[in-house]
Each structure stands twice: as C-alpha cells, then as structure tokens.
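For this section, I looked closely at a protein sequence along with its fold in token form, which I now present.
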Amino acid sequence: MEKNNDKRKYTSDEFLAMTDLEGRYELVSGDIYAMSPSPSFIHQKLISRLNIKIGRYIEENHGACEVIVSPSDVKLNDEDTVQPDLFVVCDPNKFDEHGCVGAPDWVIEILSPSNIDHDMVTKLELYMKAGVREYWIVDPMNKRVLVYPFEEAKITGIFTFDDEITAGIFRNNEVPLAIRINDII
C-alpha cells in the first residue's frame, strides 16, 4: 500500500466520485492509498475457490446473503472506502451502484507480502470499528487462517490450512458452513 502524498483529506463520497484514478485505490481515514500490483496466482485461486464454496453454500441453504469478490467498493463510513478480497453481505439494502454501503457481515482478505501490515493492522481495526461481524485473514505464505469473530467477542482463532473452520455468521444454521482450505485449493 502506497499513500498518496496529497495532504488533503477526502470523504468517501468524494473518493467514489473520482473518475480519473487509474488502478485500484482505497480510502482510509480520508487518505487515498494505491493498492498493490496484480496479486499472485495463489491469491487469486484462493479468492476464486472461496467465492465458489461460500456461494454454493448460500445457494444450497436458500440464504439471502451475497458473496462479492474484489474489486468492489465497500464504503464503511464517510472517510473509509475499501476493496476487500471477498466479502459477504446478508442485507440487500446495503448495496448501491458503487457496491456496499456499511459493514459487510463477513470479510476475507488474502495476504500478499506487500499488504501484510495493511490487512493485519489497519483493516483489522477498520473492520472491527465498522461493525463487520467476522474477519478472516488467509495467509498463504504460512498456510494459516486468522479468524476474528468480532460479534462474539472471542479471541482470535488461528487455524492451519488442514483445519476445518466454521464460518461464524452461519454457525447457527441447520447445516453450518465449514471450510478446510486444503480441500479447495
């Protein structure tokens, strides 16, 4: 993540109205950040496979949630607009022409060497404050998944790619969603 050196702070509405930005950007605390160059193959494969797994689960269980992959804007508040790798929204009223307005129910970020601090510190704090119910950080370099069940006020769960991880937002469903990363990649 590279911060724009412009001293001016922007609102999410101003940021979303910008049409002259080339590439991918996020707005964090009113500052515009250029996102990393194209992600690695494993990064994209993980997003694709998680999207399929979660999407099938929602469809098979007649869920009202939508799973969305990047690039798609999530306006968390007036000064934070981000593009999570993958997110799930269960309230259809949160969508507008730009993407999601308000906190998604579940966010998944795939770590890349260039975005570790941004996803593990900056976005962790943003998502927690914004009201995201659950945040997963998938770390392909160390083959682990960090799970932050914000709505349950539990400590972080650290799982390997061999562990079966139950999605907290679907934990109380008749058939919960469980994902073992090594089974999908």
Summary: Helices lie at 12-17, 41-60, 116-130, 181-184. The chain is about 25% helix and 30% strand.
